[in-house]
Amino acid sequence: MYATVNGTQIFFDTQGSALKEADGKLYELPTIIALHGGLGFDHSYLREGLGRLSDLAQIIYVDLRGQGRSGRPSLETATLEQMADDVAELTKTLGMRKPYLFGHSAGGFVAMHIALRHPQLLAGLILSGSSPTVAPIQEEPNEPAPSLADRASPKALEAAARVFSGDVTVESISTFFEVVGPFYAGPEHSDLTARLMRSTSQNVDMMRHFMTQIAPKYDLLSELDRIAIPVLVLVGAFDWICPPRASRAIARTVTNGKLVEFKNSGHFPFSEEPAKFRSVVEDFLASGAAPFWY
């Protein structure tokens, strides 16, 4: 489905009912708006993990502006702030009442911008494998951050350095996912990235724009104490893209944060440890202004 929002078409799809029957009555389920990472991907890779929540909440997947099935406005308009305003406007257009936002990786960057710019719209945040900044975050004593270099070959390290330096082309991205992709997940799930990305579109122009224009300037760490809504922060112990120390910084800086670490996961805990993921999200939803049938 599509909605015209702030001068562009935004694609969204729903999974699960907005209502649940219990004791012969119908009750509203919470709504979770799911924001993909990348940037430059679409929402497809989230469906396997988040789909397991569709009996607990109605899931609304969004392709952010310039990505997936959404429109292709000028890349100059594709800022984190504008994407945040797009999702806020979509929330109002669809008549959603106090949804939760799920943001994965850079989708979490957008989610945190929404919480800062439009706090009145939201019930809470679920941030998975995200970060408040690209600047170095001081490591805790005796808790070094996981590193790609600890696991990957020289070829993979070279491919990663090329992409993260802004040399983003069809060829470099293809090589990146071939040799670096397996290390996005934990050691027990090295085939997961390829499976999740099989149906996920990739916009190389947006990836390059993100790497060269957006990411270098991204830093919300000093603003996070203004986020007062409940925030559930999820991170995999093997996540070197947005390492655990980044999630710890979010959880301790927001007003009402809870951190859950997934010991056997990398960047995709929602698909690497699905039973635990479902359990912690269910507890989070039930702890808020959830209907009494919980």
Give a short overview:
The protein is an alpha/beta fold. 33% of the residues lie in helices and 18% in strands.
Task: Explain what this protein looks like in three dimensions.
By secondary structure, the chain is an alpha/beta fold. Helix content is 33%, strand content 18%. The protein has one domain (2-146, 219-287): Alpha/Beta hydrolase fold, catalytic domain (Rossmann fold), CATH 3.40.50. The chain contains ten helices and ten strands. The two termini are 30 Å apart. The mean pLDDT is 95.
Name the shape in a single word.
Answer: globular
Q: In which order are the strands of the major sheet placed? A: 1-2-6-5-7-8-9-10
Q: Structural class, from secondary structure content?
A: alpha/beta
Distance between the terminal alpha carbons, to the nearest Å? 30 Å
List segments where confidence is low: pLDDT < 50 over at least 5 consecutive residues: none
- Strand percentage: 15-25%
Percent range for helical residues? 25-40%
Number of helices: 10
Total strand segments: 10
Return the domain count.
1
CATH class: Alpha Beta
Mean pLDDT: 95
Main pleated sheet = 8 strands, mixed
